[in-house]
């Protein structure tokens, strides 16, 4: 041990070329990161936001799609167009029926007749 000022320092901590006037080599100590816990208010707000998201998902899943609008009698010109308003309507009606079937399966586990 060597005395450096008023402190005794083990000689192993001093550098090889050190004199009594130099400071000892100091090895930094690694400290782990400390995570701060959330306050009660933050936890409550986070839980409320999660509940809102869950409720929104349930509401979106429970929405029944609206049926397509049926063309009026005067909407078709009767000239045999390639893409008649009735063709569009029946395509949309088919997609609507598929959506209703899927909706009923996912929300009720079975198909319900309308």
Automatic annotation (TrEMBL):
Residues 63-102 form the Oxidoreductase-like domain. It holds the Pfam family Oxidored-like. InterPro entries: Oxidoreductase-like_N, OXLD1. It comes from the Eukaryota. Transmembrane segments: none annotated. Residues 1-78 are annotated as: Disordered. PANTHER family: OXIDOREDUCTASE-LIKE DOMAIN-CONTAINING PROTEIN 1. This is Oxidoreductase-like domain-containing protein.
């Amino acid at each position: 041990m060597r005395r450096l000022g008023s402190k005794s320092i083990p000689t192993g901590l001093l550098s090889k070329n050190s004199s009594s006037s130099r400071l000892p080599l100091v090895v930094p100590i690694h400290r782990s990161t400390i995570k701060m816990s959330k306050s009660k208010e933050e936890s409550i707000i986070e839980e409320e936001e999660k509940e809102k998201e869950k409720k929104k998902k349930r509401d979106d899943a429970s929405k029944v799609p609206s049926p397509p609008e049926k063309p009026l009698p005067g909407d078709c010109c009767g000239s045999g167009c390639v893409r008649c308003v009735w063709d569009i309507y029946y395509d949309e009606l088919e997609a609507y029926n598929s959506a209703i079937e899927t909706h009923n399966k996912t929300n009720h586990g079975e198909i319900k007749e309308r």
